């Protein structure tokens, strides 16, 4: 079994905790890393996934974990509304499925507080955002700093935000793709764990391009999660170094 190392956060020069923010994050991340290490060793590492829709990325991660026999437990899937299709897959797999209905909360803060409580109750070592269509508050993001990851359907920093496929076609780019990144307070701005590119083909429309990108997403998101679980990710400034090094960019 691969030992889990601390998920270290350092500044760009590699100096751990050289400013207050990094210091706080490093201290916090070491606490996370300790728990991750213990849970990994006893085979009880907990992944909690947040979804809003069909949940195909969540499904890809669960299926890869089953195929490769990762020592993890998917302790819960949480959707922000009861119609999220991915909840059905979770139930079929015997993964506890929860709804924290955003419409029942008057403010983002109140919704995020309820969400946070649920995630903590599930003992999450890693929180995976998989098509979760809510903007998270800074307090929520700080609480899960270093163990909160997201997939975005574009080659960041290009096309942050919504409607990425339409915008990529409008911009006339030759390549498009997907990025997995740690979540920070800036929307789609956190350190990038890995990316995959796909070609934009003659005659593409937003749907055909989205389908090609989604296939790439299903390949890279499970890889990124596994790297996290294996303790191979080190955040340096706004970059993620993989140890031992291996390509973090896939041309598909
Ligand atoms: C994916 O394209 C993901 O990149 C984006 O939302 C979509 C979710 O798809 N954030 P799914 O629910 O995982 O099928």
Question: Main attributes?
Answer:
single chain; about 250 residues; alpha/beta; eight-stranded mixed sheet; three-stranded mixed sheet; 7 helices; 11 strands; about 40% helix; binds 5-O-phosphono-beta-D-ribofuranosylamine
Structure report:
The longest helix is centred in the C-terminal third of the chain and has 24 residues, at 206-229. Helix content is 38%, strand content 22%. The model is unreliable at 1-8 and 10-28 (pLDDT under 50). The chain is built from seven helices and eleven strands. With 252 residues, it is of the alpha/beta class. The two termini are 30 Å apart. It has helices spanning 20-41, 56-68, 86-93, 108-121, 138-143, 164-171, 206-229, and strands at 9-10, 45-51, 72-79, 97-99, 126-129, 148-152, 175-182, 192-199, 233-236, 239-242, 249-251. Strands 4-3-2-5-6-7-8-11 form an eight-stranded mixed β-sheet, sandwiched between helices. It has a three-stranded mixed β-sheet with strand order 1-9-10. The chain binds 5-O-phosphono-beta-D-ribofuranosylamine.
Shape: globular
Bound molecules: 5-O-phosphono-beta-D-ribofuranosylamine
User: Can you count the helices?
Assistant: 7
Strand content: 15-25%
- Measured as a percent range, the helix fraction is 25-40%
Question: Between the first and last Cα atoms, what is the distance in angstroms?
Answer: 30 Å
The ordered string of helix (H) and strand (E) elements is EHEHEHEHEHEHEEHEEE
C-alpha Rg (nearest Å): 18 Å
Low-confidence stretches: 1-8, 10-28
What can be said about the biggest beta sheet?
Answer: 8 strands, mixed
Q: Largest beta sheet: what is the strand line-up?
A: 4-3-2-5-6-7-8-11
């Amino acid at each position: 079994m691969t030992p889990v190392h601390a998920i270290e956060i350092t500044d760009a020069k590699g100096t751990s905790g050289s400013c207050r923010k990094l210091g706080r994050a490093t201290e916090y991340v070491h606490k996370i890393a300790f728990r991750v290490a213990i849970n990994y060793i006893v085979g009880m590492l907990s992944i909690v996934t947040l979804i809003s829709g069909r949940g195909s990325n969540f499904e890809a991660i669960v299926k890869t974990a089953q195929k490769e026999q990762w020592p993890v437990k998917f302790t819960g899937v949480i959707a922000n509304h009861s119609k999220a299709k991915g909840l059905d897959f979770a139930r079929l797999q015997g993964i506890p499925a929860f709804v924290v209905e955003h419409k029942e909360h008057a403010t983002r803060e109140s919704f995020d507080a309820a969400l946070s409580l649920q995630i903590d109750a599930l003992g999450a070592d890693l929180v995976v955002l998989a098509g979760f269509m809510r903007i998270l508050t800074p307090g929520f993001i700080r609480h899960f700093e270093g163990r909160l990851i997201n997939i975005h359907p574009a080659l960041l920093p290009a096309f942050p935000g919504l409607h990425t496929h339409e915008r990529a076609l409008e911009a006339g780019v030759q390549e498009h793709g997907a990025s997995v990144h740690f979540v920070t307070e800036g929307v789609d701005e956190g350190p990038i764990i890995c990316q995959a590119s796909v070609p934009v083909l003659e005659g593409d429309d937003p749907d055909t391009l989205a389908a090609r990108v989604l296939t790439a997403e299903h390949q890279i998101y499970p890889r990124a999660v596994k790297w996290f679980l294996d303790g191979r990710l080190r955040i340096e400034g706004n970059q993620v170094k993989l140890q031992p090094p291996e390509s973090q960019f896939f041309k598909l």
